[in-house]
Amino acid sequence: MPSTLEATPKPTILVVDDSPDMLRYLRMVLELDSYRVETATNGVEALQRVRGGTVPEVVVLDLQMPGLDGLKTLGRLLKLQPGLKVIMCSGVDDPVQVQEAALLGARAYLKKPVQHLYLSAAVKECLGLASGGVTGENAAELITLPPPPQYSEN
Length: 154
What we know:
Layout: H1 4-7, E1 12-16, H2 20-32, E2 36-40, H3 43-51, E3 58-62, H4 70-80, E4 85-90, H5 95-104, E5 108-111, H6 116-127, E6 142-144
Parallel strand pairs: 1-2, 1-3, 3-4, 4-5
Antiparallel strand pairs: 5-6
Helix pairs in contact: 3-4, 4-5
């Protein structure tokens, strides 16, 4: 008889980053947290995965990638799957890009190098599993963004 833990499917996280080292690191951290992890090396590949049937509960998306950057990928992913929860990651702490990501629908913005604690907290927040906020002197590294405004089509 399978246990309850085995019967519950693990949430799928799609990680999109052009750095092989960052993909490996994020996969390892998320698998330690018991998530099922899919990866894509660029925005086009991420879109192909979602179109091809991958249904992630959360996407961890690099902001700066060659070709289709993170913001363009974010917009297109949300057109394909409107309720998708996306966490943006970047080595650049640019308030303009953070605001643009929020307006496009990102739920959180993490500054690289991404720390396990902050990634775990952001994913749990997106999945509705958060039991409290991140505290401490570095808590500002996790920025939880409000849901985008809803506009009626009048």
